[in-house]
Amino acid sequence: MRVIAGELGGLSLTTVSGRSTRPTGAKVKEAMFNILNPYLTSKTIGVDLFAGSGALGIEAISHGIAQMYLVDKSRAAIKAIKANVSKTHLDDRFKILPISAQQAIQQFIQKQLKFDLLILDPPYVQHVNPDIVATFVENKLLNAQAIILLETDYDLQDRHRSDCSVIAAKQYGQTFVEIWQYKGK
Question: How far is 78 from 63, CA to CA, in rounded Å?
Fold first, then answer.
């Protein structure tokens, strides 16, 4: 697995051993970031709540965003994330949180953090993406015009929100990818 493009393009990344983590394929990741790239700036603050190896967050940093929070409760994932972040030599642009998504959300609420990019690629069996988006909106964790990247194994068409516009919706085999933009205040 490699960083596709940007400042870190070509950097080889460590994967998480075992079956609990499913890395995003290179073609899917490239397509995602081709769509996302115009929305990513040097002021963008992002969070990946189910970071796995950290590959999507590292890709976002490679595309020039300011800071990325990488959240995962798996010890194996945190080990891979730390190894991969170390390879970037940009450690100061990452915050690694070895806790559950729910615990991270509680920390974000307490610290009154706001994000410009929310990456949601949880284990497919969880089917929690729209619920997490609702939690972020309800707790004012998203800046206006924030971008939300959702990767699932099911079609999200009937789960669209009135406060989000759909920028892109694509299916790659059994993987559904949607990119939403939060229209909030």
Answer: 22
